[in-house]
Amino acid sequence: MASGGGGGNTGASGGPGMGLSLGLGLGLSLGMGEATGEAEEAATAEAVGRLATTLWLRLRSWEAVLAAAQRLLVWEKPLHSLVTAAALNGLFCIIPRGATL
């Protein structure tokens, strides 16, 4: 049965502005397309680096709070987690059902 297209890349192909693709859909390419891809990867890597630095600078003051919350959520200290869960449950039981904060 013949395939109507849309399958993987099963041969060599090339076109204007595109590199020569080889292999069975392995993403191997030769030629002009590599320079553009490398530039895009470098720009993406730079943007990710800036984002990571920005997040680190903003969240470093919250590190202790986030670590404490994580310890409660993963039940690292079961007694503390149990007391917190009971307190939150009690708080929600005390608040009238129709009240808004």
UniProtKB/TrEMBL annotation:
Q: Which GO terms describe its cellular component?
A: endoplasmic reticulum; membrane
Q: Give its localization.
A: Membrane
One matching Pfam family: RHD_RETREG1-3
UniProt-recorded name of the protein:
RETREG1-3/ARL6IP-like N-terminal reticulon-homology domain-containing protein
Q: Which PANTHER family match?
A: ADP-RIBOSYLATION-LIKE FACTOR 6-INTERACTING PROTEIN, RETICULOPHAGY REGULATOR 2
Q: Which intervals hold domain RETREG1-3/ARL6IP-like N-terminal reticulon-homology?
A: 61-94
Protease among keywords? no
Q: Which domain of life is it from?
A: Eukaryota
Q: Which UniProt keywords apply?
A: Membrane, Transmembrane, Transmembrane helix
Q: Which InterPro entries match?
A: ER_autophagy_membrane_reg, RETREG1-3-like_RHD
The membrane topology of this protein is:
Multi-pass membrane protein
